[in-house]
Design brief:
The complex is a heterodimer. Chain A is built from 4 helices and no strands. By secondary structure, chain A is mostly helical. Helix content of chain B is 71%, strand content 0%. The chains are: A mainly alpha, B mainly alpha.
Chain lengths: 82, 469
């Protein structure tokens, strides 16, 4: 999971204008300074482009922290590779 | 049949709880069936003409859910179901001479369930569970709009369908506080609101402000009181409803206000309208190699397409949900304007105002919106807002006893709005403070007195302001 967090951290830093932002799998989106629902959708679309994936709305609705996002990326990558 | 009326308090509620206690002894199926039967009686007592509509709506949506499970075309079935639900809602809400009681609420609850199952991989609930989810009487007429992800697992459980002392104690607490909010705090305000809005052109500065402030307080205490009662009723039989209010008049921005006012409707529209629209726009821009980052969102074109359009569409739908009238439409557009200013402020990283100034500014925005929300015509709203702006003159505040009592009453209500904890904080904080509720003899006596006061103040058949939506 550590590698994937490294991959998505720049997306969060860019969206939240925080070049020093550090993320952990337990980091909740709502605990990030300045976070709102628009940021989640922006992150998802950036992640979709970065990893060539597509998320469904109910999946996005279930995301609450960084670990959820990383697990969903990994699950979708595994499904695409199968 | 409103929760604060005598038929409910002295007849329906004791009967339902007594029957639930007996049915619970015979098992889960009996307890659920009893609650469904009670819900249908509750609805029939308020709107007998529309009972077939409720039955058809629940039956039709359940059939769709069964059809969708395992189907490759589940999303299409869900879309079709949403369209039919909205068409029925539109017909009875806007075209029928008599609006169907609670239709907006039980339609949205069921649309949420269809969308939740749109992937086709989630098993449909059992018929009895679905009927209880869609038609459970505490949420049937004025919400909260139930989220299937939270509610269906609670309803599907097979254990715990017994009347327990713990559930009864906490549920009664919620219900009694809600009853007091409705009967003691909200209902008496109609003597200030009604005359003020009846002839707004005659109101000078202070009376106009008094009428608007009284209405904003009446709406809050009425609807949040109703929601507390609904949460309490569900709690008594072991079900946990979502919150609908989180101290909205303490919000420091209009964005925060909408996250704290009628939260179940906001959540529903955010997940079914705002988020899909924003997602589609961002994907569309990304596919055309247009930037979607914060810098792009700060440009006029980016702001309009990525932030402005979804907000305006969502707020117009909020307005139309309340009614297809010009004041409601202006209410929605006004709040869309407030939200856009709020987002632009954030996007430009403008400095935040001090907390007190933010709360005051947000509340004034909400107050202006509430004048439109209450008005039956644009002329009525303009008349009252003109009075608030001093266009009808500024008379000195009257010093008679009646005016002084009204001002003191408003002051006391604002003190509650801005200083008191929420019902949930008060009932469930677990604090050791003596001022916080706990299951003890002194609190049982206090709650008994409060319940007596609430029943004595109940106006017989008083209904919630939100029943008309």
């Amino acid at each position: 999971m550590a590698a994937a967090i490294t991959d998505i951290t720049p997306i969060f830093r860019d969206i939240l204008h925080d070049p020093d932002l550090d993320l952990a799998s337990t980091t909740r989106f709502d605990d990030l300074a300045g976070w709102d629902s628009m940021d989640l959708i922006t992150v998802v679309v950036e992640v979709e482009c970065r990893f060539d994936l597509q998320f469904e709305l109910p999946e996005i609705d279930r995301l609450t922290n960084i670990g959820d996002l990383v697990r969903m990326i990994e699950a979708k990558q595994a499904l695409a590779a199968a | 049949m409103g929760f604060s009326g005598f038929p409910f308090l002295l007849g329906f509620l004791p009967l339902v709880l007594g029957g639930f206690a007996l049915a619970g002894r015979r098992g889960e199926a009996w307890a659920k069936s009893w609650l469904i039967a009670a819900s249908l009686v509750f609805y029939a007592a308020g709107a007998p003409t529309f009972l077939p509509l409720l039955l058809l709506s629940v039956g039709g949506n359940f059939w769709l859910l069964r059809r969708m499970h395992g189907s490759d075309t589940a999303a299409r079935w869900a879309t079709g179901g949403v369209v039919v639900n909205l068409a029925v809602l539109g017909w009875f809400k806007y075209l029928n001479a008599e609006p169907a009681l609670g239709l907006s609420f039980f339609s949205f609850t069921q649309i949420g369930c269809l969308l939740h199952h749109a992937g086709g991989d989630t098993r449909a609930p059992r018929m009895r569970d679905y009927a209880l989810y869609a038609a459970f009487f505490p949420a049937l007429l004025a919400g909260p709009i139930l989220n299937p992800r939270d509610m269906l697992p609670q309803i599907a459980r097979t254990e715990g369908w017994r009347l327990s002392a713990d559930n009864l104690a906490v549920g009664s607490g919620f219900f009694i506080i809600g009853l007091l909010k409705k009967t003691i705090l909200a209902d008496p305000l109609s003597t200030l609101v009604g005359p003020g809005f009846a002839n707004p052109a005659a109101l000078t500065f202070f009376p106009a402000w008094q009428a608007a402030m009284a209405y904003s307080l009446q709406l809050y205490f009425d609807f949040s009181g109703y929601t507390d009662m609904a949460i309490g009723l569900a709690w008594m039989v072991g079900l946990r409803f979502p919150d609908n209010f989180e101290q909205p008049y303490r919000a420091q921005s209009v964005i925060a206000y909408w996250q704290r006012w009628h939260m179940s409707l906001t959540r529903f529209l955010m997940t079914t309208v705002h988020a899909p629209l924003t997602l589609a726009i961002l994907r569309w821009r990304k596919a055309r190699r247009l930037p979607i980052d914060a810098t792009a969102q700060a440009t006029p074109a980016g702001f309009f397409s990525m932030i402005g359009m979804p907000i305006v569409v969502t707020m117009v739908l909020v307005a139309l949900w309340h009614g297809a009238t010009l004041p409601f439409l202006l209410f929605g557009l006004l709040h869309a304007g407030f939200l856009l200013v709020n987002h632009a402020w954030r996007t430009k990283h403008a400095p935040a105002l001090p907390a007190v100034a933010s709360i005051a500014l947000t509340y004034i925005c909400v107050l202006v919106g509430s004048v439109l929300f209450r008005s039956e015509s644009v002329g009525q709203a303009v008349g009252l807002l003109g009075g608030m702006a001093g266009l009808h003159g500024i008379d000195p505040i009257r010093t008679d006893g009646r005016t002084a009592a009204a001002l003191l009453w408003l002051f006391a209500l604002y003190a509650i709005v801005w200083c008191a904890p929420t019902t949930r904080q008060w009932m469930l904080s677990g604090s050791t403070s003596r001022l916080v509720w706990r299951p003890s003899s002194p609190w049982a006596v206090a709650m008994g007195c409060a319940a007596t006061l609430g029943v004595l103040a109940a106006g017989g058949t008083s209904e919630s302001l939100y029943f008309r939506f």
